[in-house]
Amino acid sequence: xxxxxxxGSIVAVLEDRALVLNRSWAPITTTSxxxxxxxxxxxxxxxxxxxTFRVHSWDxxxxxxxxxxxxxxxxxxxxxxxxxxxxxEVIALREYDGYPVRQVAFTRRNVxxxxxxxCQYCGERPGVEHLTIDHVMPRSRGGxxxxxxxxxxxxxxNARKANRLAEELDLVLSRPPVAPRWPGGLDPASVRxxxxxxxxxxxxxxxxxx
Length: 210
Ligand SMILES: [Zn+2]
Fold this sequence. Notes:
Elements: H1 10-15, E1 17-21, E2 27-32, H2 33-42, E3 45-48, E4 55-56, H3 58-62, E5 90-93, E6 101-102, H4 108-114, E7 131-135, E8 150-154, H5 155-161, E9 182-183, H6 188-192, H7 195-198, H8 203-209
The protein binds zinc ion.
The site of zinc ion has 8 residues, from β8 and α5.
């Protein structure tokens, strides 16, 4: 091989990234394919099949035949071998269950993104220039500017609600506003580039980061 690691070289493949899920299948970070393979060989993680979402041990992943324990095994030998194995794109840790979270910046744009640019009262999507931020508990009544008190509203609903509570007008929020949780070890740009990874993220996180 000449001219350094190209896109198909083994170095490039091993340095590519794999998504790491915790024991509960929440994505927590990415790691190199090299490190992912080590974790799987050691049994600390399983490979998640991108199509079936089944978790495979190393032996299953490389298609090794099941060992028959009653057959006497020959002494171990080292010899040349070649191995062709599908590169793991997602692995699931067997023990770790933490979920390091990164704060998502509280901005007007990110509130719109969390709410999918949709009015949370009437369900309309009038376009970003016609959207406003509504304070669920109005500021005039002490409501603050936070993820939990701010929602996307179209101009009409916001004007109608004004300084009142939604209940006073029979307006119903389509879902309670929450602060999005973005996995601490994940770079949004890399998630954008990998549609497969997005399937493992909560929808609110994908809306913000991808
Ligand atoms: Zn509306």
